[in-house]
Amino acid sequence: xxxxxxxxxxxxxxxxxxxxxxxxxxxxxxxxxxxxxxxxxxxxxxxxxxxxxxxxxxxxxxxxxxxxxxxxxxxxxxxxxxxxxxxxxxxxxxxxxxxxxxxxxxxxxxxxxxxxxxxxxxxxxxxxxxxxxxxxxxxxxxxxxxxxxxxxxxxxxxxxxxxxxxxxxxxxxxxxxxxxxxxxxxxxxxxxxxxxxxxxxxxxxxxxxxxxxxxxxxxxxxxxxxxxxxxxxxxxxxxxxxxxxxxxxxxxxxxxxxxxxxxxxxxxxxxxxxxxxxxxxxxxxxxxxxxxxxxxxxxxxxxxxxxxxxxxxxxxxxxxxxxxxxxxxxxxxxxxxxxxxx
Amino acid sequence: xxxxxxxxxxxxxxxxxxxxxxxxxxxxxxxxxxxxxxxxxxxxxxxxxxxxxxxxxxxxxxxxxxxxxxxxxxxxxxxxxxxxxxxxxxxxxxxxxxxxxxxxxxxxxxxxxxxxxxxxxxxxxxxxxxxxxxxxxxxxxxxxxxxxxxxxxxxxxxxxxxxxx
Lengths: 342, 165
Known about the structure:
The structure holds 2 protein chains of 2 kinds. Chain A is mostly helical. Chain A is 67% helix and 4% strand.
């Protein structure tokens, strides 16, 4: 490992970090705008041009608040929990490829992915299941019954939906024959997106992704009418901001993963026919990736303001009695089809 | 009307699948999203009240700069909230009497319009003004200097009163 390699990795990490942070800020804005439009309102339009600076005003307000730790709380874990949440949300993006072509930097061909590990899919599944620790620990360490209930719900929910998520991904792995995300994307050239090859897997994965990111209709861990604020009831100021950030960063991660696994990642159909120089190709591929992720983010928010929250037993029923069998059947069906074709 | 009771609604196969129903809901919300909004963005875009609107009561000022009021004190007498105070004095003008002091306490005024209704000279009318902000109790007691309004500005209200009273 040379110094230049480390430098290139650092640059990639910093760029990714800054982009995600800015996107999170603007996601808060779009969330408020979309909710407003769906409810026939106008939404924030006072701070900055068309209200675009609203999230920054919110963040400044949050950071100026007093940071309260309950007396009975376990202080160490209470502080650790938001760090776990945010760390997991950000590190998942490390394996997501942004573009297929390489660009030259410091005399080297640089891949447009932070870490092209050969077990990328496993890495994503492992990290998303780590995310549950942040919520559970925050709920437990707050020493508050609402937080505890929120934390328990989140652990039950995320564990149930992780299964169907993993099983839906197995379909993609079987089609691709690799756990490496760059391979997964390269395999989806043209219109052979996994969404077309694995329609059932796509639906189960998206539903599970909604549950994993705690978005409506699966936002039971923070069901306001029942649990005050859910797992983050006892959090204020910067720690609350971290949870907020983690929720939206998780959404970005989930959209990026859905895009990579099912929507063809950076693939632009028929782009290779145009014979463009590689610089433009990289730009177009990044643009395609960003557009697809943005669309998924819009869908996330659109669904949130459309569908009411599930009841707890309905959630468990859906997870274990519907999603799991469908995902399993999808794996078997995919296996049979692959066997017949080859 | 006869109340309809239905104990259990059995879902059809497509409804049980959830996804098509959710897509239907999403179609509906998308329609709402792109719909034109009815919100009036108030401080930028102000509402212009119709002539029938009873805003803050004001004194009518003729073109020659003199108020119409003859300080008869009827408005003060009829005011249910005791918001108006008039002090009369003599003048060399044709009307012989004029209000030396005319004060409306806007914290007491209830915008009933009785003063306007009782006035024999059409001298006090309800203006279309609805923005009244005071930072002080003293500021809220409006004297003649603040109440006098040129007659052109009150023309719609005066015409409305002619027609409907």
